[in-house]
Amino acid sequence: MGDYFTCYYYNTHSSSGGGLCSGAAALKIELTQYRSVYAIGDIHGCSRALGGLLDYIKPDARDLVITLGDYIDRGDDSRGVIDLLLELSKSTNWIGIRGNHEQMLLNVLDGAMKAQPWLD
User: Fold this and answer.
1) DSSP letters along the chain, please?
2) 90 burial class (0-12, 13-18, 19+ CB within 10 angstroms)?
3) Would the pTM of this model clear 0.85, i.e. be above it?
4) Taking the CA atoms of the chain, what radius of gyration do you get in angstroms?
5) Are strands 64-67 and 4-10 parallel, antiparallel or unpaired?
6) 6: helix, strand or coil
7) pLDDT tens digits for 43-59?
C-alpha cells in the first residue's frame, strides 16, 4: 500500500443555476509515483513571485505541482500567472484547483454576478 494524499474540494461552479455549491469531490493521489510534490496557494496575480518560486524548485516530469486557486486578482499580472501555469502544465504533472477569485470571474461571465463588485 502506497502513501496517498487526498484532496477534498468543492465544485462551486453551477451552470444550471443550482447555487454556488453544487457538490464536493475528492482527488486521491499516490505520492510514491513522484519525486517531489509541491503545493502552491494564493498566487493572486503575482507572476514574478510565482516565476521565482518555479525557478527555485525547478519542477520537471518526475514531480507533481498542485496549485490551490486564487491565481488572479490583487497582483499586477494575472495574465502572466495564467501563462506560467499553462507552460508549467507542459513540463510537469500539474493539478490546478479553482479558487474563489476564479469562481467570481466565472460568475460574472455567466451573468450570475455583476462585474462591478468583483472589480472593486
Assistant:
1) ---EEEEEEE----TTSS-S---EEEEEEEGGGSS-EEEE---TT-HHHHHHHHHHH---TT-EEEE-S--SSSSS-HHHHHHHHHHHHHHSEEEE---HHHHHHHHHHHTSS-HHHHH-
2) exposed
3) no
4) 16
5) unpaired
6) strand
7) 999 999 999 999 999 99
| 101 catalytically annotated | yes
Give residue for cell 443550482: 18
Three cell numbers at 55? 525557478
* The pLDDT of residue 5: 62
Catalytic residue among 64, 65, 71, 101: 101
Q: Scan for cell 505541482, then name that residue.
A: 65
Cell numbers given for 4: 496517498
